[in-house]
Hints:
Two copies of one chain form a homodimer.
Chain A: H1 2-8, E1 15-21, E2 24-31, E3 34-38, E4 40-45, H2 54-60, E5 65-69, H3 70-84, H4 86-90, E6 95-99, H5 102-108, H6 115-124, E7 129-131, H7 143-158, H8 160-163, E8 170-175, H9 181-192, E9 198-201, H10 205-209, H11 213-224, E10 233-235, H12 244-249, E11 254-257, H13 259-265, E12 268-271, E13 274-277, H14 296-300, H15 304-332, H16 335-343, H17 347-354, H18 360-366, E14 375-377, H19 386-398, E15 407-412, H20 416-420, H21 424-435, E16 443-449, E17 453-456, E18 468-470, H22 476-492, E19 497-502, H23 507-522, E20 527-530
Parallel strand pairs in A: 4-5, 4-11, 5-6, 7-8, 8-9, 9-10, 10-11, 14-18, 15-16, 15-19, 19-20
Antiparallel strand pairs in A: 1-2, 2-3, 12-13, 16-17
Helix pairs in contact in A: 3-6, 7-9, 9-11, 11-17, 13-15, 15-16, 16-17, 18-19, 22-23
Amino acid sequence: xxxxxxxxxxxxxxxxxxxxxxxxxxxxxxxxxxxxxxxxxxxxxxxxxxxxxxxxxxxxxxxxxxxxxxxxxxxxxxxxxxxxxxxxxxxxxxxxxxxxxxxxxxxxxxxxxxxxxxxxxxxxxxxxxxxxxxxxxxxxxxxxxxxxxxxxxxxxxxxxxxxxxxxxxxxxxxxxxxxxxxxxxxxxxxxxxxxxxxxxxxxxxxxxxxxxxxxxxxxxxxxxxxxxxxxxxxxxxxxxxxxxxxxxxxxxxxxxxxxxxxxxxxxxxxxxxxxxxxxxxxxxxxxxxxxxxxxxxxxxxxxxxxxxxxxxxxxxxxxxxxxxxxxxxxxxxxxxxxxxxxxxxxxxxxxxxxxxxxxxxxxxxxxxxxxxxxxxxxxxxxxxxxxxxxxxxxxxxxxxxxxxxxxxxxxxxxxxxxxxxxxxxxxxxxxxxxxxxxxxxxxxxxxxxxxxxxxxxxxxxxxxxxxxxxxxxxxxxxxxxxxxxxxxxxxxxxxxxxxxxxxxxxxxxxxxxxxxxxxxxxxxxxxxxxx
Amino acid sequence: xxxxxxxxxxxxxxxxxxxxxxxxxxxxxxxxxxxxxxxxxxxxxxxxxxxxxxxxxxxxxxxxxxxxxxxxxxxxxxxxxxxxxxxxxxxxxxxxxxxxxxxxxxxxxxxxxxxxxxxxxxxxxxxxxxxxxxxxxxxxxxxxxxxxxxxxxxxxxxxxxxxxxxxxxxxxxxxxxxxxxxxxxxxxxxxxxxxxxxxxxxxxxxxxxxxxxxxxxxxxxxxxxxxxxxxxxxxxxxxxxxxxxxxxxxxxxxxxxxxxxxxxxxxxxxxxxxxxxxxxxxxxxxxxxxxxxxxxxxxxxxxxxxxxxxxxxxxxxxxxxxxxxxxxxxxxxxxxxxxxxxxxxxxxxxxxxxxxxxxxxxxxxxxxxxxxxxxxxxxxxxxxxxxxxxxxxxxxxxxxxxxxxxxxxxxxxxxxxxxxxxxxxxxxxxxxxxxxxxxxxxxxxxxxxxxxxxxxxxxxxxxxxxxxxxxxxxxxxxxxxxxxxxxxxxxxxxxxxxxxxxxxxxxxxxxxxxxxxxxxxxxxxxxxxxx
Lengths: 531, 531
């Protein structure tokens, strides 16, 4: 009993977060085979079909963590793996995560091993990060079946602490529920009470194969919002590098993919914006060591085996470079910008990005307040950015206009580069006061600035209200948003007079029109000065 | 006189276009030192500051054309260049283009050479593509001055045929006018009458340095629309790889840049979405041979000279890979999609892309009608795509509904994946006819489909009307556009009844609302069926 007791007293997982942006984080995850920097892409190793060895991954690609399937190894190479240990067996000195065979349950209905055996086997082969044998929900299943998979996974998870005999392995608790978001949330709540080191979203493969990335966003949020936020989160089978940025932005710290290998077998060439079959390629749109001196014809002329290996190498370069791009974007505070570029790779991805609006307050709460870089605003999609949400919230909840302010002058701006720092501004304001017979001391200037809405002049230097660039003219949805912020502001704050300055022939007229209609309905008065 | 006459009888430039997309083209430009495939990026060679040699460009980077400054060579190395010839002098066996020193006039006011000397010198050093010594307009100049530069450039150009003594060199006729678009157009019209092999847009550097890419779009169109479309077009100083795609899409076949070198001297690292100073980098967001095994710290620890060379190499990899990406996009008919990704690199670029709307009919006329790939639609910016413009035009000008069609049923769709191929569609239509007591044989179904607008069912399989994907729901500007297309269609075509089917709670309601308001104003009747 004592032995069991000691082993049960599990240590907290050591996961130190260095940088954050959106829900993403650069972290250092401690495992018994070394520290892994996250976000990390884990190549799936299938020893039967591996054209790039784990050793090459370590030496050539700087790969520090990979994943392989404990169940398949148990079935095909149990003795060897048990004798050598998984690190020698794979010839990989870094961190090894093992999956449990759950995917095989999904694919073949059942597997030839019990949950208990899978736990024991992973300990015996000395894996670093192990996964319980959960029961995956899958895609086209009834809610009853989905509910059963959630319950059964929790049951199996509950037995882990009794069954495990060592405490230097990190254990992964998969979240089930599939496309039933309430079940995903329930699964997350239940699994979070069990002492796992890492959680993972199960069954996303069919969702990703059908490009239902908007649903994937919902599933990840349903899980993340009901799990301890700081516990590392893994996304199983996060197939394609064009969605790595999205996964990371949603708080996935680890994700595995076999696409680099499977696609290469089928002559498919990965890019950060999609996949191209070799026969469709003439130029190789890549600067990696495999591609930079070649064209597509060179690939096509290689013997199949060599081509597969070279394509696999290229595909790996794409994946690892994308991870570095993402990490650099997190450090710069520009992950949103990076997402904008990536989600314009495919309409399904942009549709998923649009879904972030539904979770903007959760994202806002977890995003850093000050960043190194100015912000780029492109379209109404950016209205869901934490900085936009935060400004609106602060203005609403914490801002009171100066007491002496009786006349509100709403002055247009499209960002620092264009108007705010203009020398003409002061003169223009004096003119306005004179024209409207406003006592300068009673006037308060607020800018109306896409995408932020109303920005009192005294706040306009606060980050990021003058550290941004925006495409001009703004799109119709952004105009509506800004107009609505003006309407809200004028409803909430008291002024004796309200004057809106408009430059004729610009987007400002549209905003004025929306405000005018709203106020006429309420029988209120808003003055306009066209300049 | 005979000799002059023979030489004046210049051959047509040999420029064979292989693939087209938007105004871009993959072409083969014949020069006396070989065939150059366009679009081509020409690294600027400055022998005094060159850390990567022309020979390395040829061998390691597959660079087949470069540009250097004839005036600087004349000033500093005239004898050597005259004796050796420019190819041996630079040690570059490919095509060499020479600039004339015009940029130096802009920078220093005047240069120590006459236009005649510059023509003669370029012939004598045996350049492949030569530039007359034009008088650049520059940026902050009066219209009078700008007009003078246009006139003077035309004068100088007019003398070329008399002065040149060989006919195996291609001559470049720069277009001046600067930010005065009417002058650019005038310059283009005048220069196009002179037998140049290639035209070029002069003076864009200040525009690019200030990120006024929308103005650059205007300038390029002012030139291109007034030049022989099939003559190759060069953009001087097209600085940064993040704008290569834009330049190519506008029909720039050649463009030079010194950024790769100048930026490296200043520890600046190019990416396809911007420039990062080495001190801001922690990860190297790149898979090129220089970067893939390194991190930023490795760069920082190098001796200055080595760092500059390695950075130059990286910057070159970025430039050349981007050209290959652009060419592959042209081949796939996906240059617009590539532009969307690239212009989401910086708001100024997206603002420039929005400007394409003003030239959409010109672009439509020159864009291929059928493509290999389906189209991706992301936002209202895509409404300027040639395919959208073309469909609207065809429907307006060439389409007449079937004679028996008395009842128009407007049926919503968001593209092939979602509705068109749905089995439910036929049943739904039967239900609708029954409900509204429509004789099936008198009903004509037209889909209303973002972004195309109205698509008669019998045309819905024609490319690209069912070969596309779109982000759903569409943005407000796209909804307005589609509603306006419906309104226009209903005004132009005669039906006895008009029924619009709407799924409640969707973007279709917004479209219906706009249509309803428009028709109420006109006292016309439109029926709605909410399903």
